[in-house]
Amino acid sequence: MEYDNVTFMAYLSAAVVAALLTLTYIYQFFKEQKTAIFAPAAAVHTLNLLVIVAGISQPWPATHWTFFFECLHYNIWTLSVYLTLKASASNSALPRSLKILFLIGWPVTLFALVASATQWELIFSLEAWLTLSLAVIGLVSVEQLFRYAAGNDRQIKLLCMNLAALFLYDIYLFTHALIFQQIDPLLWQSRAAVSIATCLFMALGGLLLLQRNDRPANFTLSRPIAFYTTSLIAVGVLITILALGGYYVRLYGGNWGTVIYSLVLIGAVLLITTVFVSTTIRSRLSVLINKHLFRHKYDYRSEWLRLINYLAQPAETSEANERAFFAVASVTKTPGGAIWIRKQGFYEPVYQSGLPSYIDLQEEPVDSPFCQTFLQSEWVFFPESGDNLALSQYNEYLPPWVHNIPDLWLLFPFIVGDELIGFMALTKPVADASLTWEDLDLLKTMGRQLASYLKRHQQAEQLAEGRQFDTYNKLVAFIIHDLNNLIAQQALVVRNAEKHKDKPEFIDDAIHTISNSVDRMNNLLKKLRTDGKDLITRLSINDIVKKAVAECWRQKPMLTAEISDDIRYIEADEVRLVMTFTHFIKNALEATPDDGRVHVTLRCDDHEAVIAIEDTGSGMDWDFIHNRLFKPFETTKSGKGMGIGVYLSREYINDLSGTLNVISAVGEGTTVTVTLPVTQE
Prior knowledge:
GO terms for molecular function: ATP binding; protein histidine kinase activity. The chain is an alpha+beta fold. It has 4 domains: 2-293, no CATH class; 300-456, Beta-Lactamase (2-Layer Sandwich), CATH 3.30.450; 464-528; 533-677, Heat Shock Protein 90, CATH 3.30.565. 60% of the residues lie in helices and 12% in strands. The protein contains 20 helices and 12 strands. Strands 3-2-1-5-4 form a 5-stranded antiparallel beta sheet. The chain has a 5-stranded mixed beta sheet with strand order 7-9-10-12-11, with helices on one face. The chain has a two-stranded antiparallel sheet with strand order 6-8. α4 runs antiparallel to α5 and α8 (223-251) crosses α10. The chain is elongated and about 145 Å long.
């Protein structure tokens, strides 16, 4: 009775796992995988196991339908193999004898159907011989499938190995039965365990290797094969341990076989479900295998091809930073980070991903010890290095804003030649956040490649701007030429007008009009000329700000100002400096509704003057400020100007050794802060 209970649970468990295999192949059918053709074979295999379960209370030879379903499941497996071979090769490529071999089993199956339906009492040896023959035919068909269709397909190769194991065990089982004229009960029980193992391996392979049929299946120790093989071996070891434990308990007493097989069943279902839904487990297993089975942590060929594939895709200048970030993220498996690029004496954040919205990424001066360490030592900063002196020796140079980034993992530089283009910050990866010499070398190599990539995009952008400025300079040259002609004509009118002194009213009006035109055109010419050194004078910064405010106040009285009484001086072109402040104030007024507020503040100390222009207007987003605001010939004012006002203002502030900072939030307003060096005398 105990034997029947164990056998019943064994074959029931095998049927459940075979049903899972059937579902796997049905799932592959919807994914258009060619191994889905084995779904009917897996279903018939499941049905065969259920028939054995149904007739478990009688000896095997007395169960007539068991013989039929045994023959049927062999033939369905063989038919699926044949159809796969036809899909992989032309009919002429398959030997004629092989086609005949695939047809031999069907007459045997038809004979078994008639015998089962009429309940013929067949000789045990006849049934054993026929079943053994079908198992041999199945094994031969699997060998042909492996030879003709499994060369470049890992799913087919895994399927062949498991089917071969299944058929080989059946050949051994029925050969043993023919020799001893009876089926050994323990071998018959173990057949269920073989079915559980092979079906489980095929199901896991069908899930893990899904949509990877284009990759080669050579028996070399590559990383993907090591990953999947290790997973399958671990499952096999688990099943073997459970089976041996159950056998030991059964041998020395106790009725624990049912419990053991139940555990196998539950474990198989849970294992398949977990592997199917959990990417974290697969990534952690991949890290474990890379650490302990390979000399190198990374498959450098694959990682380099992945990086080049990201960078080789055509991208606009605004997309270059995003592409560079995801190229690194695909290799390091990091969920977030940011990129800083050098702009006008500072490294400015130009892209961020996966970081909280409240994080304020700040600029970093070019000459800071942090950036100099990047450049001089090509150093990779690891903020949470702990007691590792080798990784933390330069951590005292980390700027304070670094610690505001949650889960920060490391920062590494972008260096091309002797120039630090920028740097990148990465957050901790999910699987493994430790650092080895391979990580450091790979990051430095990627940093140099990305530096060349970003530098090339910067140069392309500068070239495009240079071409635009060439067009602008040509336009200016034409304007200057036309104005010179106009001035000459007006001067000639002035000289000829002296001949008509008999008409004093005409003469006075004409001379006044012409003189004003000449003055205005001369002023325009001075502004258009590039060499304005003769226009530089010593100016009071207080008076300059007052003039700019007074000029803009005539447009909208909502403008207010708070100007320091401490008089400070600066050497500059009065017209250009007033225009610089006027431009920012007018922009603030245009962006602010009539019920809003624009306020100008001037604060002075011994060496600096700080001019702040605050408004409660529409504001700007982070991307617009860092990637579009200061680009020449880009304007949001359709039909108004050439879009170079902010660019020229920033360039003139840089010429005066000053700094410009813009802080804005959409819907809340903008604050433009200009800092200029000044003197007391």
